[in-house]
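Reposting from the mailing list since nobody answered there.

I have sequence plus structure tokens for a pair of proteins and want to know whether others read the tokens the same way I do. The first protein:
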Amino acid sequence: MNQYSAENIRNIGLFAHGGAGKTSLAEAMLFASKATTRLGRVEDGNTTTDFDPDESKRQMSISVAVAPVEWGGNKLNIVDTPGYADLVGEMVSALSVVDTALILLDASAGVEVGTETAWRLATERTVPRMLFINKMDRENADFEAALASAVSTFGTSLAPVHVPIGKEREFKGIVDLLSGKAFVYDENTIGEFTEAAAPADLADTLETYRQQLLEAVAEADEELMTRYLDDEVISSEELAAALKNAVRQGAVVPVFCGSATSMKGVPQVLDSLASLSVPASATTAVVSTGEESGEVTADPEGPLVARVFKTIADPHVGRLSYFRVYSGSFKSNSSVYNPTSEKSERIGQVFYARGKDHINTDAAIAGDIAAIGKLSDTHTGDTLRGEGRPGMLPAIEFPPPSYAAAVNPKTKADLDKLGQALVRIAEEDPTLHIGRDSVTGETLLSGLGEPHVQIALDRMTRRYGVNVDATLPRVQYRETISAKATSEYKHKKQTGGAGQYGHVFLDLEPLTESDFEFTEKVVGGAVPRNFFPAVEKGVREALEAGPLAGYPVVNVKVTLFDGSYHDVDSNEMAFKLASKEAFKKGILMGKPTLLEPVLNISVTVPESYTGDVMGDLNSKRAHVLGMNPGENGSTTIDATVPAAEVQRYATDLRSITQGRGFFSTEFSHYQPVPPNLAEHIMSEAKEREAAAH
């Protein structure tokens, strides 16, 4: 592959709702540019960018993939992303390195949830957008309706540049509004087309759409607006130049159309991407060192600055790191410095990735996207610099987890391999988090939804041979007392030789300010002072498992107020055991209560779903605190809700809002469990204990 300057490199991300045809479009672009010799199909599992066996099996993209395309003297780094809602972290990764977002629409479905998500993420990151209305040859395909749904959702900055000739089975090609040329495709030879004059029967339609294009571009160009209002003639060349500036500023969103699977319109989209999308040379990056920051440009002779945006941990190939170079040159057989880990990395062979194929290169220069294998201390989001140079690019902000599963190995062999396998899987996807519940001892894998976690576990099983069961984690209940109690216990043991003797009286009372407090009010030396720490230690050990369901005991104040000792047989162990048993007796006398964790939850949904979401929250024992109107007709509902009720809330909310709602939670407090639920929780605990024995 040729080396290209930043001026001739375009980094373009494909984003859409799942099934809109991103992978098919990437495949069509590769075939049109003769980078591949056959046109793969998602249904056949043989596309270039869906090369992982899990992707072939599921017929959907799971990870970001790169497909460099050479077209018209330019290099287009096409970054194919998943469209499934749970894999939005991959979209975020891609948006951290692309300069233009090409968002696809299904011509028969119009704007879908994934379209809205892609648009929102690109807008938040100020990435210029383009729209491609795909599947124009499918049944019920309607360019006008799809465009209308996009305009009503995203605003009037959208402007058609390509207009279809025919629709559904009669879709033959496109008309380019800038040149006025028609491109008519051969029905018998895929990808073959001829140039022709625009069909006469489309004259009125083309004029209408050209006016829309002209108005949108004029809105972004003051001089052009003046000429437009004065009814001056604006040439196609002037319109094309103004459109290029407006697109690169993000002021206008050009709209194209075609069919990826039949290749219709794909060469023309490649022409438009090469001419209109942002060149890598126009992108600068901010590097921060402590409180100071500086800007770097796409200069191949400048200081090296690169960002790793994707990591693949393959057991056969090893770890692969995909990166974009913002400044300088990333050379093979050199060394770089990672300011995040503060370690140097030895660089082997740098290569361009085209799906699973590797194209070796001596260096990846500023503006380009490439990959490297076997970096030991570098992860997704890390900055790579010239040797010893500090300073980092801004961190990639990934969405927090919203669903957790307890992962239980099926066999002893699986247990031995589980930890390392989970680490490798999480290395690939920063939205996956591994943790361990210190109370229940469960290993937890958290992600953006139930399917997200299941996809990760399926991949782990296939790659590393680790078989697990995934269940909902046990809720972190607590136990406490609701009344004061006094208890006494005498530990006395005599078995020949030195004996054991410890005798304590404890007062237990509910506490609201803190989890636990220990005091003593012993008078007359009934219990010697040197045994007080042993008494407290015994109580603390007893706190670890309450009498109702074995959960930790909280919100209790314990006072040692009396006892007795033996000059010879009393020791720390005796008093520890005595206080532990005294506490166990006392808590049963103090009307023990089961407590459940309560979360603060903030749910943001389109206003039309507010009633349904409120009803669902009420059914989950939530207490709604208030509602606040937000941007774009959204409403945010603030509430408190028991944690046990929202373990699957990511799935529930997606179902209610068709994927348009999102939420966040944080721990608030503990509250008593209703008696009917407490009985069920306690019986489950007894069953677990019996099974363990």
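The second protein, same order (residues first, tokens after):
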Amino acid sequence: MSILLTTLNAKYIHSNLAIRILYQLNKHHDHLSWKEFTIKEPIHEIAFFCSQYSLVAFSCYIWNIEQTLQVCEAIKKINPTCKILLGGPEVSYEYELLIVKPYIDYIVVGEGEFVFQEILSSFPRIEQIKGLVYKQNEQIVYTPNHEVFDVQLLQDINPYEDDDIDALRNKVLYIETSRGCPYKCEFCLASLDNKVRYLPMETIKKNLLFMMKHGRTIKFLDRTFNIKKDFTIAIFDFILQHKQTENVFQFEITADILHQDIISFVQQKIPKGLFRFEVGIQTVNQQANLQVSRKQSFEKTTTIIKQVEQYVDLHLDLIVGLPLDYWSDIKYSIEEVFKLFAPELQLGFLKFLKGTPMRTKAMEHNYIYETKAPYQIIKSNYLSTEELQKIVKLEFALEAYWNKKRIINTMKYIANHHSIFDFMLGLGEYFETVSHFHKHTLEQLYTIAHDFILKHYQDKHILQLLALDYYLQHKVKPKTLFVQEVSRPEKIAFIESNRLDHHRYRFGLYQLGFDANLYVQSQVIKESKEPVVICYNGKEKPAILASMISVSDI
């Protein structure tokens, strides 16, 4: 019997850890294969490939379930004898709605390691397999599997052992060092497994060595990586000893419990750009936190972020739509969290994942949400549909202008002197009236922001900073916009008197009216008649030069 382990990834750069683990645990079985697709590939092409197997096992998540079901239906039309098995977090709950579909034969509930091994050993005699849902005489049959998989059995298992080595460098490689989460956030599936189980340390290190050697970006899937201080420091230290030049490591961190010893280690030993910490703040509203069983101190979180921000790249998360989070509360959270000036701030919308307490309690708060994945909030007692649509427009401005680093100096100034919430909301709403969120040029992003600021703000520094951001955005000296260069004779005289190498570089001299160097370093506006000098080399983002500079400095 030929068996295929497969999934539809959101993007080509992603890699699915689940099917790799199942394959490595069972590859001694004859005729077992694995292959990844993406949700962008044609349904009929995926289905045709899969239909050549006797049994096809899909790994299912909210981002691929709709396309996966379409593939399954197409497979059955091509080859009705092919058996379809679904597994993963998206099908482990409310499975009754899926197993009744004529093109679905089996569903694995929960962790799949034991169940999949049993299927390989017993198929087609599957009646005694615990943790497997199937149909028998038009009845749904399911015997729960209460046995928790012992992650120690993953000793010496390298999920990427049979990958194309050359392809790994261009993918995000995922690693789990533990399973489970000690917290009980009601909107998160991880809250259902509160027993944290660690993989063997030697296996973790062996796999990390392999991934560091052959990959670039390595993301840890542990829900809270810093639960155990000694374990966290041991992994950090191991990475420092063996990292490769291009390696980047991503961790999910609970900031307000980050131990001082970990902070000191980061401050003393971690070079900038090596680590990326993802911190789920979700909301500053403590009443909303308590409603979803979260305990978090924003004051502690802020203090710790300030201690590590110079050493790691930060990605902060907020969720819109939590219980008791009204419009004013969301505005306050966004204002306060934005002022931390993390390189990335993600604004997510509450999702009612199958199996989570949040989905069960939805009616208590009059939540209306999408019936299909990703089950996103539509409205509630606390936010109207209209308010949520406004925040969608704000999110566009946040993503397009802050997270993509288009006008970061401008937005820092606005956050410190005006309302960044009102600015992003107004800019997002204005953008929609003059262009398209998903179809625009880089120049349009700047000209639309310029026009919006001109109409709604009297503060001259905002337009000056917008010009600075525009000229700092391009690797090659861009088209002149917003602020003209100084006269050509003045520019030539400056280049010659400072002996700048105009053969290797291009220079822009712009009269902004303030000391750009000082502002970029400290967000302080100091009036200045000296032009800002920007150096372009065509390869990297440009640099601001001091007024008087020698050729050796560049």
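Reply #1 (J.P.):
I read it the same way you do. The longest helix spans residues 385-403.
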